[in-house]
Design goal:
The complex is a heterodimer of chains A (617) and B (174). Chain A has 14 helices and 28 strands. With 174 residues, chain B is an all-alpha fold. In chain B, 74% of the residues lie in helices and 0% in strands. Chain B has seven helices and no strands. In chain B, 27% of the residues are buried. The chains are: A alpha+beta (617), B mainly alpha (174).
Chain lengths: 617, 174
């Protein structure tokens, strides 16, 4: 356990450029971006497109992702999965409202939602993994190598289950996730608002099918999500449908066939896009064997969509109220999502917030670009000690107590990572197990919050009632993901924790999926595990060597000899192909360096605070 | 864990919050998991634990009540969570009066004015108690520490009233 300590402004291995990408895993479209020659740019696939429709089609023996999958959305709708993001981390019961809206068949897989396809049952994690793998492939091909790490964006309001599902999908796709980043934070990063800007900013995100508004506070490098709101059923698609309604009035066609509907929608989209720069647009549609020619003016279009835009402004007002702010307190507004190109949207937003919104970065790409910037920093390419992104937990974590009430353990907007401990006692003589129910949300009643997981503590030493004191520690990491540990205090016995995620996959399930996935069938699973341990061994070797170079003085001669011996062994074992032996050698090295790490940490805290070099302390 | 030690600041109630903030950020820059995302698994875990500690310490020292509690805990005095009954009749009377005022806000002709008045009272009382608390904690005697513990309990009542007042204000706005 050796914390590698790099001075701010220098990375541990400065000369090695690593490959990193930012991924915007969207409901409608997904993108991948990277920083090259100091500039963040989205990457195009072999068809020259950077926007990948978030659509996956399963046939009996293949998987198709993106434009090709979208092309079959009509004729093979039941095997073509669109908007899978809406299903991530959800229980089957929670998706009943979507059941009639999606053309594919949702089924109950042990309480979780899954999709029945011609290739068998697929869960949302597997579907998302296909999208991620496709994007990663685009990046690897463009950059000429395997990605060292990625940053994936998630909506700010995503709870633990949804974040975990996203991370599982990345794991399944064989990606190393350095960080899950909130979408609005990514957009703010793309505009460089992390440096210099202080104050409250709004991120207005109008996508194809969803509208999100987030209020962030930027203070000394801390990104704090103050409030999020929006409408999960409002987006640019609704604009298109409003135009289709107008077109139908013009042509007099009240009922449209599937095919005619597609044609009308295509025409509507084209009109909408053209009206961004022109005042009137001519269109032509076939009606009963002849062509109907008409026009739509910008003013008419704005009348059509004005009610929809008003709805988003109402949501903005609501979210400001939630944050306890007025529109005058917003210093910057960032525009995200293709629909923010509509001039009316821009003017209404500008009027409401009384400030001209930021639009210089393509609103379809801004989230991916922000993710790429952060990925570049995290992978260690950027020698920038000033970048520090502190995030907060978006929803409170609590425990179920007597009477179905929640007791908050970690309140929302607490800066993460965070750890909080809570003590419990047994209420029966000889009690050896205890059940805990963790929920996420702001409401008083458990049933109004989201169930995250049920934990069973086992192996509590049998003592009289009230005799055993169990200290349960809830830890939330930088991605907003929860882990739980428990210990009986008087005996120090570590209680076993059995995690039953309410709406997620257990570690075992993920492992099984990994083994079963196409991704890994092609490779040798054993080889993959070996490679993972070898990479980990390299990291440990590098970390310890660097530490010894800097601080060998903190060790006794004997300790130094032992550690050096362990390093030699580790380096030797690493060359071989015995995965278990490598793992054991890593653990041995870690154990031997525990104290060393602690000493270095203390020293480093002191030197950070006094501002002196280590030698001067 | 001694939070003052972590930030290398004197264990005093009167704390330079600006200095605390800048030390907090310095430590975050050193230990935040983002700075160790290409480290070994153990390094990453260590980084998460260390920053969780730093966050907790900062959070506790930033707020006067939690800071006072931590200071007392370091001196071996733990404030129990269960409500100890108060023997101070003046304080109890005052609490009851304030509660009545809160209950009557909605019925009053000018709720905003009433809220303002109560708010001012609460602020004044809090300020007063916090000053007493600072003095008590500074003397560092067992007797004064007990007094400080009592003051903390009283302050908790006022913070709770403050919360309730904010809630009422919010409900009125909606």
């Amino acid at each position: 356990m050796l914390l590698q300590i790099a001075e701010p402004g220098q990375s541990a291995a400065p000369h090695q450029h690593k490959l990193a990408a930012g991924i915007d895993l969207g409901t409608t479209n997904s993108l991948v971006a990277t920083v090259r020659s100091g500039e963040a740019k989205t990457l195009v696939n072999s068809q020259g497109r950077d926007m990948l429709p978030s659509v996956v089609r399963y046939t009996a023996d293949s998987v198709v992702v993106g434009d090709a999958a979208m092309a079959s959305a009509v004729n093979d709708a039941e095997n073509t999965i669109v908007s899978v993001k809406r299903l991530m981390g959800k229980g089957y019961n929670e998706t009943l409202a979507l059941k009639d809206k999606v053309p594919y068949q949702l089924i109950d897989q042990q309480g979780l939602v899954a999709i029945n396809t011609v290739q068998g049952v697929k869960n949302p994690v597997e579907v998302s993994a296909e999208i991620l793998a496709t994007l990663a492939n685009t990046a690897s091909e463009t950059l000429g190598g395997e990605l060292n790490g990625v940053v994936i964006t998630v909506p700010a309001y995503f709870d633990d289950a949804q974040r975990q599902a996203t991370k599982d999908a990345a794991k399944l796709a064989g990606l190393n996730v350095m960080r899950l980043l909130n979408e609005p934070t990514a957009a703010a990063l793309a505009y460089g608002l992390d440096s210099g800007q202080e104050g409250v900013i709004a991120v207005y995100d109008l996508g194809g099918g969803t509208f999100d508004i987030s209020i962030l506070r930027l203070r000394r490098g801390v990104f704090e999500v103050l409030a999020t709101g929006g409408d999960s059923a409002l987006g640019g698609d609704d604009f298109d449908h409003a135009i289709v309604g107008y077109l139908q009035q013009c042509t007099g066609e009240a009922e449209l066939s599937h095919q005619a509907m597609r044609q009308y929608l295509t025409t509507a989209r084209s009109i909408k896009e053209q009206l961004t720069d022109s005042d009137t647009v001519n269109f032509s549609l076939p009606v009963a064997g002849r062509q109907f020619n008409g026009t739509l003016s910008k003013t008419e279009f704005e009348q059509l969509v004005a009610p929809l835009v008003k709805k988003t402004i109402r949501a903005c007002r609501q979210v400001l109220r939630d944050a306890g702010l007025t529109s005058a307190e917003i210093v910057k507004v960032v525009m995200v999502g293709g629909s923010t190109r509509v001039p009316l949207v821009r003017t209404e937003v500008a009027t409401f917030f009384a400030t001209e919104p930021l639009t210089s970065i393509d609103p379809d790409k801004v989230v991916a670009i922000g993710a790429a910037i952060q990925a570049n920093v995290l992978v260690g390419n950027k020698a920038d000690g000033d970048t520090l992104l502190l995030d907060v937990i978006p929803l409170s974590l609590g425990l179920e107590t007597m009477g179905g009430l929640t007791e908050k353990i970690i309140p929302r907007n607490t800066v993460i990572p965070v750890a909080r401990a809570q003590e419990f006692t047994t209420f029966k003589d000889g009690q050896t197990a205890m059940a805990l129910h963790v929920v996420q949300g702001e409401r008083e009643l458990v049933e109004d919050c989201r169930s995250l997981a049920r934990f069973e503590l086992r192996g509590i030493p049998p003592l009289p009632a009230g005799g055993a004191h169990i200290r349960v520690t809830f830890q939330v990491d930088a991605d907003g993901l929860l882990s739980v540990t428990a210990q009986e205090k008087s005996t120090g016995v570590q209680a076993n924790i059995q995690v039953k995620p309410s709406y997620g996959l257990s570690d075992d399930q993920v492992a099984t999926m990994l083994k079963g996935s196409m991704q890994y069938a092609r490779q040798d699973m054993q080889l993959r595990l070996l490679r993972e341990q070898q990479v980990e061994a390299e990291r440990v070797l590098e970390a310890v060597s660097q530490a010894l170079k800097a601080d060998a003085a903190l060790l006794s001669a004997q300790e130094l000899t032992n550690i050096n011996q362990a390093l030699t062994t580790l380096a030797e074992v690493k060359q071989g192909d015995d995965t278990a032996a490598i793992k054991a050698a890593i653990e041995h090295t870690n154990t031997l360096t525990d104290d060393f790490a602690a000493r270095r940490m203390d020293q480093s805290i002191r030197s950070a605070l006094t501002g002196h070099n280590v030698d001067e302390v | 864990m001694n939070y003052f030690q972590l930030f290398n600041l004197p264990a005093k109630f009167d704390l330079d919050l600006t200095e605390l903030g800048s030390r907090y950020l310095k430590l975050q820059k050193q230990f935040h998991p983002d700075q160790h995302s290409s480290g070994s698994e153990r390094d990453k875990l260590l980084a998460v634990q260390q920053t969780a500690n730093i966050n907790d310490a900062y959070h506790s020292l930033k707020q006067p009540l939690m800071r006072a509690e931590h200071l007392l805990a370091l001196r071996g005095l733990k404030i129990s969570h269960e409500q100890r009954s108060f023997t101070d009749p003046v304080f109890l009377m005052q609490q009851m009066e304030l509660r009545e005022q809160l209950a009557e806000i909605e019925q009053s002709g000018d709720p905003d004015a009433v809220i303002d008045t109560i708010e001012r009272q609460l602020q004044q009382q809090k300020k007063h108690l916090l000053q007493q608390l600072a003095t008590a904690l500074d003397s560092e005697t067992a007797e004064q520490d007990q007094l400080a513990a009592d003051l903390i309990r009283k302050l908790k009542f006022f913070f709770k009233l403050q919360q309730e007042l904010e809630l009422i204000e919010q409900q009125l706005q909606d």
